[in-house]
Amino acid sequence: MMTDPIADMLTRIRNAAKSRKRTTEVPVSKVKRALADLLKAEGYLQDVAEIDGNPRMLVLTLAYQGKQSKIQSITRESKPGHRVYRKSDEMPRVLNDYGIAIVSTSKGIMTNKQARQDGVGGEVLCSIY
Predict the structure, then answer these.
(1) pLDDT at 1 over 90
(2) Family assignment (predicted)?
């Protein structure tokens, strides 16, 4: 049994980026799918595909600029033993807004910039640059 599946997903992405792999696979869940779709929309992932099977898997294709991965750093902010919640006006700024923080809000999973713009707070899941 895995205690933190989001941290597992982020670790798989981090390891694939450091070893310059094009793709990595993670087990499917609704939160992981929403997280992957957001990373694709922000340009950190090139493609997200779902493979049927037992268990169903998400195939994440990482985005690169030449030989350098677009993901330089990906860190888990809120952990199962220590949740991190922020109000809309207290949203973190990652690298002076060059990076993003992914936030789980009542309106769904979104970036810190979208949450600030919509005026909603929530749990800060991770930060990426």
Answers:
(1) no
(2) Belongs to the universal ribosomal protein uS8 family.
The residue range of the domain holding 86 is: 74-128
Compute the C-alpha angle 47/119/116, nearest 5°.
50
Q: Does 33 lie in the same domain as 62?
A: yes
Count of domains in the chain? Answer: 2
CB 119 within 8 A of CB 61: no
Please state the pTM of the whole predicted model: 0.92
Output the domain CATH number for residue 48.
3.30.1370.30
